[in-house]
Amino acid sequence: MPAPIRLRELIRTIRTARTQAEEREMIQKECAAIRSSFREEDNTYRCRNVAKLLYMHMLGYPAHFGQLECLKLIASQKFTDKRIGYLGAMLLLDERQDVHLLMTNCIKNDLNHSTQYVQGLALCTLGCMGSSEMCRDLAGEVEKLLKTSNSYLRKKAALCAVHVIRKVPELMEMFLPATKNLLSEKNHGVLHTSVVLLTEMCERSPDMLAHFRKNEKLVPQLVRILKNLIMSGYSPEHDVSGISDPFLQVRILRLLRILGRSDDDSSEAMNDILAQVATNTETSKNVGNAILYETVLTIMDIKSESGLRVLAINILGRFLLNNDKNIRYVALTSLLKTVQTDHNAVQRHRSTIVDCLKDLDVSIKRRAMELSFALVNGNNIRGMMKELLYFLDSCDPEFKADCASGVFLAAEKYAPSKRWHIDTIMRVLTTAGSYVRDDSVPNLIQLITNSVEMHAYTVQRLYKALLDDISQQPLVQVASWCIGEYGDLLVSGQCEEEEPIQVTEDEVLDVLEGLLVSNLSTPVTRGYSLTAIMKLSTRFTSVNRIKKVVSIYGSSIDVELQQRAVEYNALFKKYDHMRPALLERMPIMEKSASNGPTEIVQTNGETEPSVEPKHPPPVTQPANQANDLLDLLGGNDVVPVIQTTMPTKPASAGGELLDLLGDLSLSGGPAPAPAPSVPTSQPPFLLDGLSSQPLFNDIAAAAIPPMTAYNKNGLKIDFTFERANPNPNIAVITIHASNSTEADMTDFVFQAAVPKTFQLQLLSPSSNVVPALNQGTVTQVIRVLNPQKQQLRMRIKLTYTLKGSPVQDLAEVNNFPPQSWQ
After folding, report:
1. Which of 362, 376, 382, 370 is nearest to 427 (CA)?
2. Which residues contact 551 (CB under 8 A, 6 or more apart)?
3. Paired residues of 703 in beta bridges
4. Rg for the chain (alpha carbons), in Å?
5. Which three-class secondary structure string do you get for 710-779?
6. Which regions form coiled coils (predicted)?
7. E-strand spans in 245-346?
8. Which of 367, 558, 658, 683 is 20–30 Å from 789 (CA)?
9. How far is CA 301 from CA 97, 205, 295, 297, in A?
10. What's the pLDDT tens digit per position in 416-451?
């Protein structure tokens, strides 16, 4: 068989290929020849063939069939064969393949070889791809070589020990004795690998970290080495751009950072050397900047002196003036991490940071924006907001959402006056209204509502903004809400903050009607506009025009808009006497308020006092069906229903509760007095009286007859009653839902609402499927607190799916047995 071509000739041949197909053909041809040579056990050219195979592997072609040949080369006595064999093993084998275990004995023999270069090959291979089993078997040989006097072997053994510790951390103590003399070595290669080994041990074991701090006195040794590096003269062997061995300096600084973290003594011992490094390192070359950056990170991470921290921040400030984008980015990122702890020191570089907002690099601009917001405080709010609003005007679209959100938060926290706050947020809405987050609209509405003295000024500014631009939907939504609330102030011209404008009622209605028909308006915006027009029916005299507009949208193709219009038409017709009260101006809204002393939040059936929930501002989320009508009701006649339902059917709190109440008569007789506050002797929560015992153990059965609350379309709802003990004001009602039809009723949800003088709680149902043919029932427990002993009235809402069709029905239950509420 002719001799195979050399590796150099193969490379030259492959490079002549003009197409990928031609190259692939050459590779396949050569692989076939190599396979034939392997099958014939050709020892003469095995090394050459494996070398060519490794080159093909580097090009991305499969070379797994050469794995066993690598093992044969490793077992060879020739150094050239071993070198290619170990190289092939590192490239073609890993610990996921069992083949690698076959070379354990060969590596062990080579670790004890008389030639240092063979030992070095074995150490490199073990440190590269040794599995945990191999590391356990060979750790002893590595530890012996770590103690040898040969610098060539010691540096390779130290790196191999790092790999062993990563694979088998419990072997760490084996290498502890060998580390005592490593830092006394003068060879920089041994020093470098020793620092890497010590860093790995300190990071992985708190016990080792404490040992090196106290017993080994590692910090003084590292300080001595670092000082020698700084003070040493020119050394051509280690010099990089005029700095002596920067790689070793960086490694030592990282180890010092670990040793000094949360340790006063270690931090104090390294303060002086860190100051020397920070002041003596040349910054004209990137090598010096790398050392300074590591120095800054170390100073910030240890318990350093305040002056040293200021020096570190000043170094980062100088980085911001560097022409290299990477250095500027690193400086901004580091300042962002330290701004909370050293705010005043970072403030000194505020102008440089703000200048970075004009950088062409998007990553630098983003970091500069985040850092600028972190620097905002009550003293610089006006200047910083001016710069950030200018940035918001000119920045790319991907920055606008984050920048607008940051301006909102900063303005809310540090606003010098309410007018400035409103002007700033309106500036954001007019500049980047389409990019603001969803919560910005309700937050601004709440701000405007609470700024009573600014109502006339705000509605006038928003009306002008509407005339100029209706493309910014959040701005249009806020403006519509404000015009609906304060339209009378707009028309009367009561603005004292600036010159009032002359506007007629028809002009205001024209603008709002234009929003309803505009192609730029989203369905949410149209809902705001229609609600605003409805509110103006109690503020303007053009009631007939408003009736016509509302009636038109009763047949809108948009279901949300249609529902609003139908409900508003009902207010005009059936409940016109209630309209002025329902549409009166919203009161000042608190950021956090509870529904009363009896609100309960339930999680998995467990009762806990609720943290004060945050009420959404009125008419700020039109997507929640009929939420606006709940706002009109003002909460006077609606009791909060805390319901724990099946997770597959989340209830829409606003719309469903309103539908449930509908035309429920709340005034059957003289109007009841408002419910008195709960005295301190009474449990402040509905279930507190039961909290010391199991949930149902203390329910005393009373002679209360059951009743049928609903029986229609095959669905029957029965109520059974019990009286809670020890609190007789709580009635426990258990519903039993049965189904007489031939098909199961799925997605069954039972809801209930009671007048304000009661408090009601729904527990989770036993199931959301009512079995057919009365083969089972669904039960659910209702608790009703009736402190005034008034006649119980309830409206229930039932929703379920029968034979694939959704069914929904309402019913009023007024015939409760007297024993249930007396």
Report:
1. 382
2. 565, 569
3. none
4. 39
5. EEECCEEEEEEEEEECCCCCEEEEEEEEEECCCCCEEEEEEEEECCCCCEEEECCCCCCCECHHHCCCEE
6. none
7. none
8. 658
9. 42, 19, 10, 6
10. 988 899 888 888 888 877 788 777 788 888 888 888
Give the tokens for residue 188. Answer: 């920089």
DSSP type of residue 677: P
Instruction: Report the candidate in 391, 463, 483 with the shortest Cα–Cα distance to residue 432.
Output: 391
Distances (CA, A) of 452 to 239, 413, 420: 71, 19, 15
Q: Tell me 431's DSSP state.
A: H
To which residue do tokens 């120095």 refer? 295
Rounded to an integer, what distance in angstroms lies between the CA atom of residue 785 and that of residue 183? Answer: 77
Q: What is the pLDDT of residue 725?
A: 66
Q: Which residue has the tokens 């690998």?
A: 193
pLDDT value, residue 216: 72
Look-up: residue for tokens 């050399």?
Answer: 6
Supply angle C-alpha 151, 153, 156, rounded to 5.
110
> Which CATH number is associated with domain 707-820?
2.60.40.1230
Looking only at the bridges linking them, the beta strands covering 641-643 and 759-762 are parallel
Angle between helices 116-129 and 151-167 (to 10 degrees): 20
Region of 301 (left: φ > 0; alpha: ψ -120 to 50; beta: rest) is: alpha
**Strand, helix or coil at 515?**
helix
The b-or-e profile of 488-526 (16+ CB within 10 A means b, else e) is bbbbeeebeeeebeebebeebbebbbebbeeeebeebbb
pLDDT of residue 124: 94
Cβ–Cβ under 8 Å, residues 142 and 111 = yes
pLDDT at 639: 47
DSSP 128-195: HH--HHHHHHHHHHHHHHHTSS-HHHHHHHHHHHHHHHHH-GGGGGGGTGGGTTGGG---HHHHHHHH
Residue with tokens 């939040």: 601
What's the token pair of residue 146?
């770590």
Residues of the chain with pLDDT under 70: 1, 233-234, 496-497, 591-702, 725-726
Strand segments (E) across 604-652: 606-609, 641-643
CA distance 290 to 281: 10
Dihedral sign from CA coordinates of 606, 607, 613, 618: positive
What is the 3-class SS of 342-379, one letter each residue?
A: CHHHHHCCHHHHHHHHHCCCHHHHHHHHHHHHHHCCCC
Given the DSSP bridges, would you call strands 715-724 and 707-712 parallel, antiparallel or unpaired? antiparallel
Structure tokens that stand for 643 in this block: 């319901």
Which residue type does 393 have? Answer: D
CA–CA dist 466, 514 (Å, integer): 11
Q: Cα(742)–Cα(772) distance, rounded to whole angstroms?
A: 5
Give the chain's length.
822
Domain segments of the chain as ranges:
398-583, 707-820
Instruction: Give the orientation angle of helix 46-59 with respect to helix 7-15, to 10 degrees.
Output: 30
Q: How far apart are CA 388 and CA 380, in angstroms?
A: 12
Euclidean distance between CA atoms 366 and 403, whole angstroms: 9
